[in-house]
Amino acid sequence: MKKFVAGLLAFCMMAGVVTACSKKDNKTADGKTIINLWAFTDEVPGMVDKYIELHPEFADKYEVVVTIKATTDGAYQPALDTALTSGGADAPDMYCAESAFVLKYTQGDMSEYAATYDELGIDTAAKIDEAAIAQYSVDIGTRPSDGKVVALGYQATGGAFIYRRSIAKDVFGTDDPDTIADTIGAGSQNWDKFFEAAETLGDNGVAIVSGDGDIWHAIENSSENGWIVDDKLNISAKREAFIDYSMDLTANGWSNGSQDWQEAWFADMAGVGEKPCFGFFGPAWLINYTLGDNCGDTAGDWAVCPPPVGFFWGGTWVLANKNSSDEAKAGVKELIEWITLDSSDTGLQYLWANGLMNENGTKDAVASNTVMAKSDGSIDFLGGQNMFDVFVPANDYANGKCLTQYDESINQIWRDQVRQYTTGEKTRDQAIEDFKAGVADQLGIAS
Q1: What CA–CA distance (Å, rounded) separates 322 from 22?
Q2: pTM (2 d.p.)
Q3: pLDDT of 382-407, one tens digit each?
């Protein structure tokens, strides 16, 4: 891909059509500058609508043209790549990437298209400090070739353990978050006490988690390094241990054997699964947009506490195209700064944290710890607990240096092989060997 992109740019320069590749001056009939926004959901476009509502003068100068392509069946990335490499009037000026593939655009094959935030005119370092943006988010959005920030998010996706209060009282005698945190070994950086708790819960007929996917994200994103080191497949000790943890959960009946995002997983959220399920690992968005939508009669019977290991799960980063016109970049600068770095009471993140961005009043953890520190994260779903008390420090424990641009594909291969081992279809050694072979066959990455 890098060779293709370099060749394309060289051709444009030799042919004298640099404007199509590197400099767009895209206007409406009445003279407004067009900003092309690409996203995979309507979330960021909705934020832009809110910015325009609050800053009507922006609409006097700019017209935002939105292109939404879902990530379903891998449709978004190829379309975005084509639009970026083709350039011209329809190329994205502002675009979004989620955690599963963000490194491709911030540090990988497509990172050369990203404008630095400094280049847009943002005082990036000072704004990051002022907003107290979690380091993992900054690391993910920093391009190694020049050490510059090219993307930041608006959500905080540091993870916690989200558990049922009623089960905690029945089995452990209390639902107090501090006590449950100690019970599962919060902050210990190992899983020893968690599995002791799993055994206790199992003796009482309760699954500690729904399936092995509920611990995978915590293990994956607490690893000391990623799947690829020095251009070769790397299986870190922590990630390899997942295959044994998965077997422990399955063989001992400490989970319900569900797969995340399947019906059995959602049933456990509602308390109608095979066995009662104690909890789930995840960020605030898992509470708001997954547990909340599938909890049935369990709403209000939940609490959060810190996890055994720090991790993050998910998130969306926002980028600008370095080849956009100066006029478009000026507008994109306004939008990106308001979405990712404005820690004032009128910034997107304050509105988002305090439930002022939607009719339901849904509060969410945001990228700025400064914003969360001055906001009220109390929600009925958690029995009135202030979730920000847990999610602010969770962001500090997360590690953003263990990702690669191939994680989406490699994770799928890995978890499929682990599942075949825990269901008795393969030996442990065979599952690992087949994982290595799968990565080599599909991605050309040797171990």
Answers
A1: 8
A2: 0.89
A3: 999 999 999 998 887 887 888 888 99
